[in-house]
Design brief:
Elements (H helix, E strand, L loop, with lengths): L4 H9 L11 H7 L6 E5 L5 H8 L3 E6 L2 H13 L5 E4 L12 E7 L5 H14 E12 L3 H4 L13 H8 L4 E10 L8 E9 L1
Length: 198
Amino acid sequence: MTWDADLWDERYASADRLWSAGPNRWVEQELAPLPPGDALDLACGEGRNAVWLAERGWRVTAVDFSRVALDRGRAAAAERGLTIDWVEADLLAWRPDAGTADLVLLCYLQLMAADMSRVLASASDGLRPGGTLLLVGHDVRNIAEGTGGPQDPAVLYSAREIGDALGRQLTVMRAETVRRPVPGAPRDALDALVRATR
């Protein structure tokens, strides 16, 4: 997986939509019970999770470095009459204001370990006391035991690795590998799911 905005713009432009329009199943499951507040959706892609959060009353800032993906998110939000702050930025350089978010979401952000550590530290700093951080990503076991996703182990991780990294700043509430059914695939995808609070 390449961390390059131009390549991701090309990838998004090659199809009407890369991902489903609805929220990620783990995002919906884990976050539906939370009362709305200020949310950061980091690496938001086409904005499906940002739109879902905004529909539930969250004040959302959605960040991605792909202009094509953000334009799709803007269009989806406008169709629903939603206000979302869309930010075009590289997460390796962009930092949230410290202690301003009730929720930070990272969904399928797959980076090399050193870069991932930087983003996790920045994301953790963005949380206010009582806030929740939810990370969902392709688990390192997915290559051998799952289906789809990146095939480069250098950008994959385990829930335990992410939990250990977040545990330096936050309280980890859940860190496990979860199975995600993939329609038409012979087996489930394996995702790392980590939920932590400040």
